[in-house]
Amino acid sequence: MVLYWGVRSLRDLYLPDLPGTWQRQHPDFCFIPVLSDPLPEDRWPGRTGLVHQSVMTDFPDLSGYQVYACGGPAMIDSARRDFTAQCRLPTEEFFADSFTYAVQAQTLA
């Protein structure tokens, strides 16, 4: 299992030690954080850019995999489109939890 975790900057990577612990405890688990917009003070030596593009770089052929994605609607839509069109992921092997927001009802006074 490979966990790609995309955030904007280092401060957005919450509980950063937890996936590292999983990686040490489970030899078949790999954790790859990806920062889309690292701050200069982050001095980030790791992956940058869009998280799904990092997946595509590492796995140009997803035909034998399943993808479980969660995030904003635009990220989910881009990942689904690119993984299926460019990386041969079968559409039925893409599972997602899109973070959508409910509109709060206004109360009339």
Entry summary:
This protein has about 110 residues and is α/β, with parallel strands linked by helices. The protein contains three helices and five strands; from the N terminus they run E-H-E-E-H-E-H-E.
Keywords summarizing the entry:
Rossmann fold, two-stranded parallel ribbon, alpha/beta, 109 residues, 5 strands
What is the CATH architecture annotation?
3-Layer(aba) Sandwich
Strand content: 15-25%
What shape does the CA trace take? Answer: globular
Name the CATH homologous superfamily: Nucleotide-binding domain of ferredoxin-NADP reductase (FNR) module
- CATH first level: Alpha Beta
SS-based class: alpha/beta
Q: What percent of the residues sit in helical stretches (DSSP H or I)?
A: 25-40%
Largest sheet: 3 strands, parallel
User: Distance N terminus to C terminus?
Assistant: 53 Å
Q: Write down the secondary-structure element order.
A: EHEEHEHE
On the 0 to 100 scale, the average pLDDT is 93
The name CATH uses for the topology is Rossmann fold
Strand order of the largest sheet: 1-2-3
Give the tally of structural domains. Answer: 1
Q: Ranges with pLDDT <50 over ≥5 residues?
A: none
Tally the helices: what do you get? 3
Measured on Cα atoms, how large is the radius of gyration?
16 Å
E-strand count? 5
